Amino acid sequence: MNVAILMLSAGSSTRMGSTKQLLPIGNKTLLGLSIENALQTNAKKVFCVLGSNAENIKNSISQYDIEIIINPNFKEGLSSSIVEGLNHIDNTNFDAVLIMLSDQPKIDSNYINLLILSSEKHPTQIIASQYEKTIGVPVIFPKKYFKQLQQLEGDKGAKDFLNIHKAQVISIKSDKLIDIDTQEDYLNFLKSL
C-alpha cells in the first residue's frame, strides 16, 4: 500500500508564545523529532506543510529527505493545511494519506506503522486515533476521501469530517496522543523523557 504522510506544521504557536516547531528536544527540535519518527515508518513519502515562520523552520529541517509544502493561507486554520497538502499530492499514485501533527512527539514509528498496517487490512476504511471521548489525528484517509477533504474549511481540521463519517472509521487507542500546545505541556514532556 502506497501511503504518504502529510505532517501539518504551519501554525503560529500562539499559545506557546514562541515557534513551537523549533523547541529543542535533546539534540533535535520538536518538528525534527516528529519528522524522524515519520521517516522510520512504512510510508512511501513524507510531506511537511509549513506556513508561519516557514523559512526559519525550513532551514532547521533541511537535512531530512522530505518534501516541503508551503501553505500561504495558514492563518485560515488547520483545514487550510490539509487542503494545501492534498492539492499538492492529489495527482500522485498514493492510495492513502496519513495526516499527523508535528506537535505530538510521542507518536513514534511503531504507532504510525500500526495505523498503516490497519489501513492495509481495511483499505476502504478511515483509520483514526482514539482519544478518551473523541477520534482524531494521526488519521489515515483512503484516496476516495481526498476530494471531500479538499473542501474543508476552518480550524477544526478533519474533526467534523471524522464525526460525519464515524461509520467508516476504525479507531485505535494509544497512550502516545499528547499535544505540545503550551510551555507547561513542553516542560511536562521534557520531564517525561
From TrEMBL:
Identify the CDD domains for this entry. GT_2_like_f (cd04182)
What top-level branch of life does the organism fall under? Bacteria
Q: Which UniProt keywords apply?
A: Transferase
Q: Does the keyword Transferase apply?
A: yes
Q: Which Pfam families match?
A: NTP_transf_3
Which Gene Ontology molecular function entries are recorded, alphabetically?
transferase activity
Ranges for domain MobA-like NTP transferase come to: 6-165
Q: What PANTHER family does the entry give? A: MOLYBDENUM COFACTOR CYTIDYLYLTRANSFERASE
User: What name appears for this protein in its UniProt entry?
Assistant: NTP transferase domain-containing protein
